Protein: Purine nucleoside phosphorylase
Organism: Alteraurantiacibacter buctensis
Amino acid sequence: MGGEVIRSAALDGVAHGFLDAAQSDAEAFDLVPHRAGPVFLKQVHSALAVTVSEPFAGDPPEADALVTATPGLALAIRTADCAPVLLADTTAGVIGAAHAGWRGAVGGVLEATVAAMVALGASPASIVAVVGPTIARPSYEVDEGFHARLLHGAPENARFFTPGRTGHWQFDLPAYVVARLGEAGVGQVEDLALDTYAGAGRFHSFRRATHRAEPTYGRQFALISL
């Protein structure tokens, strides 16, 4: 088993955790107290958020965020470079978990998560969101096409890029996710600033495994429960 489960002081009082590679491989879900679950989705890099009140009876739906107001239900997501985001409005008793890769974040998965939480009684200003282990700017090289796509109609996104080698850029996915959460009205956002790519041995990374031609790669789990 790896080190202690990664938690945020911003979510103090809420059962939650970002599991490292060893904990995730061991499916150490008991590190986050809950009575049922955890509840997973079939993640597809979408902008869809699903409201749940009990574990799914059959196959999970295709979506990339979960929200609930049901005590004891654990929401869980898998990531391996994309941003895991755990959210809570403790006053309203509403929580959420989102898988935010660049496609989902650009498409609006974070805004959809906040909207689903609001539908359950949460207030955006009362929501606390924490961004867990994610590939960081120094590790995330993208090409000119990616750069142009994110700047098209949104020149303000230039702040999330720094020049890299010729024809390439370094993209700051965690900062982009934090910004989108802020634009959605989330009252408090924390980035744990943990780079999955650089955390060899501590975190799984799809991009690192690809660069090293590793045949398989794992995924981290992030969980939250009322």
Q: What stands out?
A: The chain has one domain: 9-136+172-225.
